[in-house]
Amino acid sequence: MSTGFFGDTPKIKYEGPESTNPLAFRHYDKDEVVLGKRMEDHLRFAVAYWHTFVWPGGDPFGGQTFQRPWFEDSMKAAKLKADVAFEFFQLLGSPFYCFHDADVRPEGRNFAENTKNLNEIVDHFEKRQAETGVKLLWGTANLFSNRRYMGGAATNPDPDVFAFAAATVKTCIDATQRLGGQNYVLWGGREGYETLLNTDIGRELDQLGRFVNLVVEYKHKIGFKGAILIEPKPQEPTKHQYDYDVATVYGFLKRYGLENEVKLNIEQGHAILAGHSFEHELALANALGILGSIDMNRNDYQSGWDTDQFPNNVPEMALAYYQVLAGGGFTTGGTNFDSKLRRQSIDPEDLLIGHIGGMDCCARGLKAAAKMIEDKALSKPLDDRYAGWNGAEAKKMLAGGFKLEDIAARVERDDVNPEPKSGRQEYLENVVNRYV
Asked: Taking the complete model, does pTM exceed 0.90, yes or no?
């Protein structure tokens, strides 16, 4: 069905690198085979419901700039928004989408009305999914926008807020399972603190640990087969978030016995806010065995906040997808565009153009990453650099076969006097540039 919002825009097609059509893919050919798998199956693109259909175009200094016919808090508007969304997914050819509960349903007077509204929209989504073949990559709960969450959700000093948040997550997991969602994300929008003067960190961490365990317990009780994911974010809105980065979240998971139950949904913009590169966060998640899915966007590097722009830096994407492929590729996860238009990009066509450019950028990055893996362009130099650890004595040293005094005696006996070897960073940077 056509809502008329996008006029008579035809379905976006692949036209090749020479195309100048802004409403066509130049690099994303979903059926192109890369490393033995279709590009669509590698990238598993998803549209973020909140930024694409909910965000009004505001910023810290100005309000709404977008005019959308569904911008009112009613069930009628929510269903129109859903119809436009599924029309958009089909035009774009996106196989997946993601949502928060508050994105898709009107806000009710209480928990019961919120649940009723959500379930009515889920009924609507089920029909649209059946008609279009579009699937849910993941669902989540908005536990940060409403004023009840101003002091956090799971980490709130009021146990009634904790309970309200837990009940809300239950309904959202139920909705995600009904819709065949492949993951459920816990995004701790206000799980942190603004000042230590009114914060008991130990207590709040214990609350958060119990909250996540409750979610995992419920997942197993209802037989939800998807992954539970946490999305790290270092700051904004709170001064310090408990889910600061990959390393911080892994430490949290280990402390509360969750390291084998929960993986991560890692966002490019959040990695930058944490003072890391995106590939660093992905590589660390791979090393720790907790990489689940990614949110794809970019920040403006002149701004110190999360600008959520569409990705357009192919070298960054190549290094990111190199880590994804090196980790074996996505299973239940995928590439969600947690990206929004600039507030002056007010036309419906701009929504398509932003996603088209992002998908093309990711496709170029994926192909460059795949070629680097095929050629062992980075893995061979890396293996060579650590080759000494393949020796018998080196292996024994790591395996606990030597005590500290044994190692010291060997260094003295054999007159071990190592000479530094070049890390060849510039060479490797030039290698990457040859592929992008």
From this structure: yes
